[in-house]
Amino acid sequence: MAIIRLNVNGRTHSVDVAPSAPLLYVLRNDLDLRGPRFGCGLAQCGACTVLIKGAPVRSCVMAVSSAQGMAITTLEGLATKGKLDPVQQAWIDEQVPQCGFCQNGQILTAKALLARNPSPTDAEIREGMAGVLCRCMTYYRVQAAIKRAARVIADNGGREASLRAEAGASSKGEEVA
Q1: What is the pLDDT of residue 175?
Q2: Nearest by Cα to 31 from 53, 47, 11, 49
Q3: Per CATH, is 1-77 categorized as 3.10.20.30?
Q4: Fewer Cβ atoms within 10 Å of its own Cβ: the N or the C terminal residue of the chain?
Q5: Which CATH architecture fits 78-177?
């Protein structure tokens, strides 16, 4: 056993665990996070996906010691100030989940995909999401949700740029149209 320090969802945690323990087990059993799920245990299905430094990682095969000091984001860490992330909201709006088991991996993988490619084509979405399995076959709804989230993120980016421009102009005493 060893003391491992993890930065999960913006908070630092110290856990006394075997350094070789899978990150997934520590997240679920020691930190009581229920987003990442055990699916296959072989990094094949994606249910255990977390974001480490913004990239999707299969936590079922990653030793917890390998994650020490890295920024880890789970499904629980996507919402900000009680507001769902655009990807999470798109999942609800498009009614993606059927059984819901794979949704953790789907949402986090989609979040990383949109961070890399803010306006993916259908083919790019299918390619980017290919490693996350859905037993209920909701792939078309997943694709629709990703496209919706991309539009919302693009719209919010435009609004944020507009608000920054307005704030800059008003701080200089200029009139804003």
Answers
A1: 43
A2: 11
A3: yes
A4: C
A5: Orthogonal Bundle (1.10)
